[in-house]
Design brief:
The protein is globular and about 60 Å long. The protein has 3 domains: 111 residues, no CATH class; 110 residues, no CATH class; 149 residues, no CATH class. The chain contains 14 helices and 13 strands. The protein is 34% helix and 16% strand. Helix 10 crosses helix 12. The protein is α+β, with helices and mostly antiparallel strands. The chain has a 5-stranded antiparallel beta sheet with strand order 4-3-2-1-5.
Length: 407
């Protein structure tokens, strides 16, 4: 049964046409690279979107017919909630929407380098100055079920962000302390930041805990974005400088591990062994594999079990050279049923033995693996120091500290 007319969206990156997404009346979705991009562009996704001419269709329907590179532009959790509320307010039930409808909503406000035209300009209109406390309070009410319409600033700042916790994408001036939701053309002196609010399950000091983890990971030798705590009248919120924008605000192509291998983070079925293999195949640099192993060690020893496939990403330069993105979403997490989202050589509750096996299978020497584990462990032992510095409460310090693996 025909449900819609053929619809097209043009995909752009850095102001250039990358290609076209088209949807048939039967809602089949195809992508085709622009001939000019084929001549001097790069593959948007190394495994599923090779830089070759012709129509490309994703037939597994893991992402509703989208390839993972485009699925990565769409929000989940909080951003999806704001998107669905917007469409409902316009008389469009979410179940009637297609993936292309949702990409048009994102338009040029998405994470990463990809933009979609024509966009739904009405959906996300950047506002002026914003108050984090006001945004956080409304976000909390909306998550709790309030039917109120999201403030334009909140919809603009939060409607394209991924992850389950409420968060906003903002432009922030570190010198003046000013903040706006206009992340498309922020004024000089404003950088691109992501600020997280608390979910209903989070402790009051969730931001301080994540800030401590960010400092701890950096001290453990992990590449991290700039991070800080934002103080407001209702609490402290954790923020990171976005790595999908460079220092001049230019967009950087970003691809999650889940999007790259076409794996839905809602269905845990991936292992760090596969992740390290993909890191080498994509970057062709063994140093990147060693960095990925260090992150695995940190997640295991620091009890970060929310380590699903969307919490690991890659970035590509304009020539199509891939590397690991800075690490993100590192914090204390219990995991589903007390298990890591990604297993380590098959184990959902891994320890040092599984980490050594992971290293061996990835070609990392036993000596280097042992040194890495010891180095990361020595930093994690300093948890109370990092926690004190970021203002983690005594009960949270004890709760987190009791779960750390100290080899």
């Amino acid at each position: 049964m025909k449900t819609t007319a053929i619809r097209k969206l043009h995909v752009l990156a850095g102001g250039r046409s990358v290609g076209t997404l088209a949807q048939t009346p039967e809602r089949e979705i195809f992508f085709e690279y622009d001939p000019a991009w084929l001549r001097d562009g790069f593959s948007l996704s190394p495994f599923f979107l090779p830089l070759t001419p012709g129509l490309k269709q994703e037939t597994s329907l893991i992402f509703g017919g989208l390839h993972g590179a485009f699925e990565d532009s769409l929000p989940d959790g909080w951003g999806l909630l704001l998107m669905d509320r917007f469409f409902r307010s316009r008389g469009m039930p979410p179940e009637s929407l297609t993936p292309l409808d949702r990409l048009a909503y994102i338009g040029h406000h998405g994470m990463g380098a990809l933009e979609y035209h024509p966009s739904n300009a009405e959906a996300v209109t950047p506002g002026g100055a914003m108050d984090l406390a006001v945004m956080a309070e409304q976000a909390e009410r909306i998550v709790a079920g309030s039917p109120e319409e999201a403030l334009p600033e909140l919809r603009a700042a939060g409607g394209s962000s991924a992850g389950s916790r409420p968060k906003v994408l903002v432009a922030f001036n570190e010198i003046t302390g000013q903040m706006t939701s206009d992340t498309i053309r922020p004024a000089p002196g404003f950088g691109h930041w992501l600020v997280k609010f608390r979910s209903r399950e989070d402790p009051e000091d969730a931001g301080s805990i994540e800030a401590a983890y960010a400092e701890m990971a950096k001290a453990a030798g992990i590449v991290m974005p700039q991070a800080r705590l934002f103080d407001t009248s209702i609490g402290r919120f954790f923020g990171i400088r976005r790595f999908d924008r460079d220092s001049n605000g230019a967009r950087i192509h970003t691809h999650t591990f889940g999007g790259m291998v076409h794996s839905d983070f809602r269905h845990p079925n991936r292992d760090y062994e596969e992740y390290l293999s993909v890191v080498f195949n994509v970057t062709r640099e063994f140093q990147q594999v060693e960095e990925a192993f260090r992150r695995a060690v940190f997640n295991v020893l620091a009890h970060n079990r929310d380590d699903h496939v969307k919490n690991h990403s890659f970035v590509a330069d304009p020539a199509g050279n891939w590397r690991l993105s800075p690490a993100y979403d590192l914090t204390h997490s219990l995991g589903v049923a007390g298990q890591h989202n990604m297993t380590v050589v098959g184990s959902g509750k891994p320890g040092v033995g599984e980490l050594l096996a992971l290293a061996k299978n990835a070609g990392i020497s036993e000596r280097q693996a042992t040194d890495t584990i010891a180095s990361v462990s020595s930093v994690i032992r300093r948890w109370p120091e990092f926690a004190e510095r970021t203002g983690v409460s005594a009960p949270s310090q004890a709760r987190v500290g009791s779960s750390l693996i100290l080899s």
